[in-house]
Amino acid sequence: MLMKKPEHKRFEYQPRYYKPEKDASQKFKEKFEITRKAYLVKKRNNKILFYFLIIILILYLAIRFGVL
Fold this sequence. Notes:
Structural class: mainly alpha
Number of helices: 1
Radius of gyration: 32 Å
Order of helices and strands: H
């Protein structure tokens, strides 16, 4: 034969299987991450409020005692 004989194509396919126990653990991780993010947002909001109150207190005292 003068020409190359055609061969079939080879694929690197690895099948994925459904694992219910992995699905449950994934749902738990997502739920935990959502609650964690909500906690961090709440914590950040508390810091901003605290700093705002400190600034207001300092301005009040400065006006009250005639520094400003």
